[in-house]
Amino acid sequence: MKPAPFAYTRAKTLKEAVTLLAKHKDNARLLAGGQSLIATLNMRLSAPDLLIDINGIKNLNGIAKKGKHVEIGTLARHTQVERSDVIAKHAPLIALAMPHIGHPAIRNRGTFGGSIAFADPAAELPACLLALGGEIDIEGPSGKRKVKVDAFFKGLFETALRPQEMITAVRVPAADKATRVGFAELARRHGDYAIVGLAASARADGKGHLADVRLAYFGVGDTPFRAKKAEVALAGGDVDAAVKALDLDPHDDVQATAKTKKHLASVLLRRVAKQLMEPQG
Amino acid sequence: MSNHTVDISLMVNGERVQGRIDARKTLVDYLRDDLCLTGSHVGCEHGVCGACTVRVDGEIIRGCLMLAVQCDGAKVETIEGLSDSGEIADLQAAFEQRNALQCGFCTPGMLAAAQDLLKRANKVPSRDEIREHLSGNYCRCTGYHAIVDAVEAVAQARAKGR
Fold first, then answer.
1. Which chain A residues have a beta carbon less than 8 Å from that of B3?
2. Whether the predicted model's global pTM rises above the 0.90 cut
3. Of all helices (H) and strands (E), which one includes residue B53?
4. What Å distances lie between residue B136 and A139, B4, B39, B73, B154, CA to CA?
5. Same domain assignment for residues B10 and B46
6. Which of A22, A26, A233, B50 has the fewest beta carbons closer than 10 A?
7. Sheet containing A143-148: which strands, arranged edge to edge?
8. Which residue of B has its CA nearest to A52?
């Protein structure tokens, strides 16, 4: 199908973009990479009156280590993140996830901030953020604010973003020597949305155990989801106990039944636990 | 400030093209309907099948997930341009020799994606790497083996020629 008619404008600055959003409210959409938005326009699942193209706004695509954090600009394209030395060195979980996001032609356009703002429950990056912690920089008509990742994903395609706001950057803790990360997903075809996926981080406590385990599942509910009981069990070093404690309640969807998803989640937990327990770096 | 039609100017296969277009027109529809470059195909129209794959500013993209208006000032290369320049002549010959196409619907996108892998690779990619890079391009005829064979053969031949 073809999109319904809409007006189009290019925002040259952040201020211009949020001012336009404030003026047009729910009738406008921001166009970043467009890899989800244009698909929904084509299918007429979405029919805004106005598209505000933010691709021309300068200085929103940087990737840099700033103190103890890695900051990723909202317009950084997936390919740029995938090829970034800073990401490879200081945000290894994100580096592991990148090749699973869509396909090369999708990654050349899709943006980091777009993926977070869209908050598809089966997408990789929201789960990576939940596994890492960190915060999201947001700008709106009334100024700037920051939201912790733990408070950002609210419901199905629903986030802490208000209708007139946009994400400007995302910051995650930079990895150090004690950082352990793991990532695995199962999809029908490489690059498709996951049936089930798991992004994880932890710290090696130096005595052969893990601390601060964060297991963020995707494709198992309305939002990326932390399996907190399994986190505790895994920190105790017992993978079988972690699998038994896996506190997920997935729904049936077009890809798999809830029962299958739960089984696959336990398979992924064993794979990722192995990654977390091996020395890295 | 904002409008339903927009003036654009871009390079397509080395030629300057200008015109006023509907903002809602996707790049692949613009290429096919306005410029009569029908080598780029329209399959799923939501980014899944890869039949509309073209190159914009040197990187492959989905022609159905980019608006033509976003290509103002860009350099677009379609299968017609890649073919005429001779850049993928060896890939095209290998596809023919190894029966890597039957109906041909996926072939323009498949060739663009394969060339993207080969021009970037500094070694012969493994069959798994070839499959991964082409994972965004559906083929409903061949079962993919012949396509991977053809891309691998060209990768090896180009490596020998380097």
1. 7-9
2. yes
3. strand B53-56
4. 34, 31, 18, 27, 20
5. yes
6. A26
7. A63-66, A69-73, A166-173, A135-140, A143-148
8. B2
Rounded Cα distance between B58 and B29, Å, is 20
Q: Is the pLDDT of residue A75 over 80?
A: yes
CATH number, span A63-173? 3.30.465.10
Q: Pick from B82, B111, B142: which residue ends a domain? A: B82
Distance (Å) from the C-alpha of residue A277 to the closest C-alpha of chain B? 27
- Report the distance separating Cα B16 and Cα B18, nearest Å: 7
- The top-level CATH class assigned to A179-277 is alpha beta
Q: How many CB pairs under 8 A join A and B?
A: 101
Residue B23 contacts A, CB cutoff 8 Å: yes
Segment A120-129, tens digit of pLDDT? 999 999 999 9
Looking at the 3D structure of chain B, how many domains does it have? 2
DSSP for B104-141? -SSHHHHHHHHHHHHHH-SSPPPHHHHHHHTTT---SS
Q: Do A35 and B6 touch (CB under 8 A)?
A: no
Report which residue type is found at A189: R
SS3 B80: helix
Q: Give the tens place of pLDDT for each residue, A230-249.
A: 999 999 899 999 999 998 99
Within chain A, all domains assigned CATH 3.30.43.10 are found at 7-53
- The pLDDT value recorded for residue A191 is 85
Tell me which architecture the domain covering A7-53 has in CATH.
Answer: 2-Layer Sandwich (3.30)
The tokens for A73 are 């600009």
What is the longest distance spanned by two Cα atoms in chain A?
62
Q: Any residues with CB less than 8 A from the CB of B83 and at least 6 apart, and which?
A: B39, B89, B92
